[in-house]
Specification:
By secondary structure, the protein is mainly alpha-helical. The chain contains 12 helices and no strands.
Length: 249
């Protein structure tokens, strides 16, 4: 073979090898990418499976019932595992709710109760940092702070955030207004007007009128509700019509 033909032969050999090498590189790249995706998804998958254990207890609580100790403990363990693998605002606030329920079952002067409430508050603050638009969690934060004996303005701040983020959430109307009627002496003028607006909103739903009046009666704040509803003769007439039924429970 002529020496001049050697470079040409080598070039032809390389050209023949390249089509075989490229598929191998492509396969290796895809395999590496797939492995990376699996590694990234694994924590979330494990967290999701762990969180399933909280379903029975949370479902019972959301339906207004009390979960068993076994369901409650299983829920706490499951959500703690879930949070350790992949934290999220909803998981943190749900775990806080479970901790608060655990605290409710202990005597008021129990040291463990205070520790559980402190954990619940910390979880709620972290959860709300991740999802500040959760009006339910803001109300839970107000409840937990109140149970801990926090300074009233800390409770009020959480209550007002709950209204800002979920003013129309009917499930929150009564428990939230019950707390507002307790803490209104610490409100500013603007905050009082916000509470007045919330009471008027609740009144727009006929199903909530009598329950609202009963909540106010228990708190000794019937006059505050009447003031909030004043100015509309038809509303005042409806209030007077329902008044005899407040004690008929």
């Amino acid at each position: 073979m002529d020496n001049s033909d050697v470079p040409a032969a080598q070039s032809a050999k390389r050209s023949a090898e390249q089509p075989a090498v490229r598929p191998i590189l492509a396969i290796a790249s895809c395999a590496g990418l797939g492995l990376l995706l699996v590694m990234l998804a694994a924590p979330r998958t494990i967290a999701a499976w762990s969180a399933f254990a909280a379903g029975p207890a949370l479902g019972t609580i959301f339906n207004g019932r009390t979960p068993s100790d076994d369901d409650l403990n299983a829920a706490v363990s499951g959500l703690e595992r879930a949070v350790s693998w992949s934290s999220s605002g909803s998981r943190l606030t749900e775990l806080a709710l479970l901790r608060a329920v655990q605290a409710e079952r202990l005597p008021a002067d129990s040291r463990q109760r205070q520790e559980l409430l402190a954990q619940a508050e910390d979880l709620l603050v972290r959860g709300l940092s991740a999802n500040p638009s959760d009006g339910y969690a803001w109300l839970r934060l107000a409840v937990v702070r109140s149970a801990r004996g926090a300074e009233s303005r800390q409770v009020v701040a959480a209550l007002l955030q709950s209204i800002d983020t979920a003013p129309n959430a009917r499930h929150l109307w009564l428990p939230r207004i019950e707390m507002m009627l307790r803490y209104w002496p610490d409100f500013s003028v603007d905050e009082l007007l916000m509470m007045r607006s919330q009471i008027r909103m609740i009144w727009t739903d006929p199903l909530y009128r009598l329950p609202l009046m009963r909540v106010a009666d228990v708190q000794g704040q019937a006059l505050m509700v009447r003031w909030s509803l004043s100015g509309d003769p038809s509303v005042e007439a409806e209030y007077q019509r329902l008044e005899p039924d407040v004690d008929a429970r």
